Give the backbone structure.
Amino acid sequence: MREVSLRDSNPEQAGGGASEESSNRRRGFDYLIVGAGFAGSVLAERLATGLNKRVLVVDRRPHIAGNAYDHYDEAGVLIHRYGPHIFHTNAQRIVDYLSQFTEWRPYEHRVLAQVDGQEVPIPINMTTLNKLYGLNMTTEEQAADFLASRAEPVENIQTSEDVVINGIGRELYQKFFRGYTRKQWGLDPSQLDKSVTSRIPTRTNTDDRYFTDTFQQMPKYGYTKMFEKMLAHPNIKVMINTDYREIRDEVQFDHLIFCGPIDEYFDYRFGKLPYRSLKFEHKQLDQEQFQAVGTVNYPSEDVPYTRISEYKHLTGQVHPKTSVTYEYPAAEGDPYYPIPRPENAELYKRYQQLADETPGVTFVGRLGTYKYYNMDQVVGQALAVYKRIEEAEQGPAAGESAEHARSLADQAP
Ligand code: FAD
Ligand code: UDP
């Protein structure tokens, strides 16, 4: 067995003593996990705690927590480096799992959209319609009738354009969805799966929350603190600033869990899977509050960014200054969003098949499985993967049924 040379971060791995203990130490790792985001960190924690596995987690970024990474900026305000991350889920089990590593702060996200010179609630609700059209509707029936009178039925709903026009008509589609989507994805809504704009419902009541999930809460001390606890197990070693390619030939491991882009792992053998990127502009402002709610969306194509988020709404932090992030969609840069459309799904299938034929490696997470997943869905997916590993080792009697665990991952759009 080849010895492990792990530079300075894990000197005991390179030891060469003759005792049984040191030969165990030289054994290397049971699992190498690429990516310290939700997918990688949940699996590392489960494998270490649940199966006593020795795990090495590497991430090429200079921090853990993946896209959920948060930190205090120069002004002392807690911000999210990769844009606003709001935790919401309907799955009690996922809350229970994460609650081992954090306390929570209740938070219901609210979003306004700047349309026709006004800021109005999005998802579109009765208040939105009253404000935009100078109406005074008071019942859900009135709002439903109004929307029905505008909707333009589409027979075969396939795209992100179809689903909105079918629900609320072309005018509202153009005001709220067309420009935002064209900016965000660099594609017209007619070129995107219906699942994308279907994330945003339309309401006939006055509920102005962005999400209606049972659980809506933020980790009380931030995401990074939660990840620190998740990874604080003696069997888990973490190496940041480390690309998988730098260490794959240096480290001894039995199994690989890859949470980076699946096409990158296979050296783009079938061509690049398209991802959409963003540039984040973080600003610190010498004022206590910048905007009325956590996020304001800017659907107009005349504005280069899609949204501005102000973190103090999310975190509840009290501070004389405030910090905001502007999101500018970009074709180049870190891969943040898989792009849901049929040709991409086809290409992904080819990689997935290759993955199925590649022993010893499991792909997990938003990039590893090319799925537009929210955080809770990635946690569910990682727990389901863990269950399968656990059952393979201990039989189905161990823990709960894989079927149940898998159902956690099935909330995907
Ligand atoms: P990631 O967090 O992307 O982690 C993958 C990690 O792998 C990265 O840190 C990367 O550096 C590392 N990596 C990749 N390749 C390599 C390599 N070769 N070597 C070493 N390391 C590598 N979800 C919500 O539920 N609510 C929200 O409000 C929300 N808002 C979002 C806002 C934005 C702008 C974005 C982009 C996403 C948002 N999400 C939100 C989604 C959320 O970020 C993801 O669901 C979640 O972070 C995915 O976790 P992951 O572990 O799959 O991937
Ligand atoms: N969307 C839109 N207008 C909005 C908000 C959302 O057109 O004001 C569309 C857009 O295509 C966006 C998608 O709905 O990419 C999903 O929005 P969500 O807020 O869920 O995006 P995320 O937070 O994942 O970036």
About this structure: The longest strand covers residues 275-285. Confidence is low (pLDDT under 50) at residues 1-26, 401-406, 408-413. The pocket of flavin-adenine dinucleotide (ligand 1) is lined by residues 34-40, 58-61, 66-68, 82-86, 243-244, 259-260, 278, 336, 365-367, 373-376, 378 (CB under 6 Å).
